Amino acid sequence: MIISNARKAAFIHIPKCGGTTARSFLSSLQDIEDWEGVYDHPDLGEVFPAHLTLFQLQKYYPSTLERLDSYETFAFVRDPRARFVSSLAEHIRKYHGGMYEMTTRQLQRKAGRICELLSNHDSNLPLHLAHFQPQSRYVFLHGRRFVKTIFLLSDYAAIATYTHRTFGSALHMEEQKQNQTITYRNNLVAECLVLLRRSVRGFGLVPDFMKAPFRKVLYREASLEWRENVISGSVEAFIEDYYQEDIRLFEGIKSARGCVDAI
Question: How many CB atoms lie within 10 A of CB 102?
């Protein structure tokens, strides 16, 4: 998250909801020291402070939460289904070498495995599952809505207006997107590249600058159709149950056209 004492405002970073873009844009306003990077917490194990939930802040960093409660706070939320796939992509990139080596069928199996892991954990998810935390855990605390202003990622004009008024500079999400999920152009490209990586010795040693020219041809931003293909029936059922509060939140914001104050 980003906390500006000078502006008495803060950005609550919900994982895989445009937070990297917002944090990068607002980083010069950060007033919390040593809030970046991963470190070992005596009770939580490895943690990334920017992704701590409100309950975790209340329990382990009460003074920070108290300050947030008195400040102007905002966050972004997104469709839980699309966010799950984006979280899956981030998980694979960080811990399994990237989606470039997996077909849609393999991604479906991995998604099912993630659902099993989430079912066996409480709200204190370990670092490798932190991107799957429900969005509601960053918005509500003990049933009370904590974050004062919430936007959909697509509310470009409203986000720009709000950030200009609150922080003195407009954040244009459509122009500054970072850390987006990409996938293969089509299944044929996927199968060919997976086979190539397995058969060509030393393929992984090729420098990134030599691969870069081909990425625009071989990959594209993940489409809605592709995301739907990754989510099988059982995973869809899990999302409907595990993220039911997120779904209500997202649908409510859509109905209010960008801000939950109207709900």
Answer: 21
Which DSSP category does 223 fall into?
Answer: P
Report phi then psi at 106, rounded to 5: -65, -35
Pairwise CA distance, residues 63 & 175, whole Å: 35
| Per-residue confidence (pLDDT) for residue 123, from 0 to 100 | 87
The whole-number pLDDT of residue 101 equals 63
Give 245: exposed, middle or buried? Use CB within 10 Å, 0-12, 13-18, 19+: middle
C-beta neighbour count of 239 within 10 angstroms = 20
Q: Considering only 8-17, 54-63, 96-105, which range has the smallest mean pLDDT?
A: 96-105
Q: pLDDT digits over 188-205, tens only?
A: 555 565 566 555 554 555
pLDDT > 60? residue 222: no
| 166 and 31 Cβ atoms separated by less than 8 Å | no
Instruction: List own/partner pairs for 67-71 with CB under 8 A and 24 or more apart.
Output: 67/3, 67/5, 68/3, 68/10, 68/12, 68/146, 69/146, 70/8, 71/3, 71/8, 71/9, 71/10
Judge whether residue 84 has pLDDT over 90.
yes
d(CA 81, CA 239): 7
Residues 223, 187 contacting (CB under 8 angstroms): no
C-alpha distances in Å from residue 223, one per residue of 39, 85, 86, 112, 179: 35, 11, 11, 20, 15
In whole angstroms, give the CA distance from residue 4 to residue 9: 5
- Residue 107's identity, in one-letter code, is L
* Residue 113, C-beta contacts closer than 8 angstroms, at least 6 positions apart: none
